[in-house]
Amino acid sequence: METIDPSLPLEAPEGVLVDWSDLPVDLLQEISKKLLDIFDFVYFRAVCNKWRAATSISDLPPQLPWLLLQDLRYHSESICFYALFSDKIRTIHYPMARSSLLSGPSHGYLYVDGGTCSLFNPLTKDEVTIKYRKDLLPFLVSMGPDPIGSDDYMAFFVDNFFEMTGFYRLRSCEWKFVSLPLNTGRHYCFKGMYYMNENGTGNTVVFNIACGSSFMVPSPKTLDSSDYVFFVESAGKILRIVQHLDLSSDVSTPNIGYDIYQLNVEDEIDQSRWVKANSIGNQILFLDSFRGISTAVRPSTGLRANCIYYIINRLESSVHCGLYKYNISDGQLEKILCPFNNGWTWLVPNLVSSLPAGHN
C-alpha cells in the first residue's frame, strides 16, 4: 500500500476539487473490507466504475443477521429488517409479502409460503420455486443454514397428520419421502443427516437421509416438559441447545436459560454422545421460535461473541415479546432495545447470486 507523506497537507487547497476516483486501488480495497453493513458496501461500489472494479461481492465482509419483522395484519408489500449492529432499519419491496408467511433463518434466502413455496433472496431478488406434487401440503421443518449454496436437503412435513417427512434437494428438485415418528422440539438438516428430539426421553434421533439408517444419541440430562431443543450447526459442529423458558411471570424480563452440548461422533456411531459446552468461541447464536443460525462475530461490530440472541414474538407472549441476549459465560440475560417488538426470524444478507442451473 502507498504511504502518505506527512509533509503533505491532509486537505486539498481551497478551490481545488478532489477527484476521489484517483484513490489507489489497494486503498479502496482496504476501505471496502472495513464496511460491515452490506448497504454501505453497495453504496461504496456505486460511487464510480473504478471503485466498483476495485471491489468484489465475493470480498464482502462476513455479515451478521438482520431481524425480520412480519405482521400479516398490515398486508404490506415490503419487508422490513433491523440490522442489530448498525441500529438501522432496511425496507425492501416485495409484493408477495402481503399474502405470504416468510420463514428463516438462513444465509441469504427466506422461505416463502404463499400458496406456492419458494426461496427468495431479498437483496438480489432471486427466487427459486420448490416443486412438489399438488396432493402434498409441505410444512417447513428445516432448511439448514445455506439452502441454495450447498447440496443439502430441506425437510418438510408433507401431510395433514405430520406422519410423513419429505426431504427436498433443491439443486436436483429431488424428493425423498420417509415415515418417521413425530418428534418434539426443533428438527435440523445438515450434510445429509436429520436431527430430531425424541418424545419423552429427550434422546436425539439422527437419520441418514441417503441410506435410510438411523442411530440414537442419549440425552445427557432429563428434560422438563417446558424445555425446548434446538439443533444448530456452528463452525462445522452440531450443537444441541436446550432452552429453559418460563413466560408465566408478569414481570418485564422472562426467565430464560440455556444448556449447550456439542455432538462428538465416535468411530462407532452408536457410541456418539453429547458433551456439555461452556463456550461457543467467537460465534453468536441467533434463535427464533423454531430454528437457529450461528455466525462468527468481529469485535468491530460491537457485538459480543459467546452469546445467544433470542426472539420472543407476540404469539408467544404479549408481555415479554422482544429481543433478548443471553451471555453464555455468566448466564446473564438482558433485553435489547429494538424497534421491532414483534420480530419473526433472522436473515444473513447475501449479495451473491447462487441460483442452481436451470432455476429462475
Automatic annotation (TrEMBL):
Residues 81-313 form the KIB1-4 beta-propeller domain. Coiled coil: none annotated. Residues 20-56 form the F-box domain. PANTHER family: F-BOX/KELCH-REPEAT PROTEIN-RELATED. This is F-box domain-containing protein.
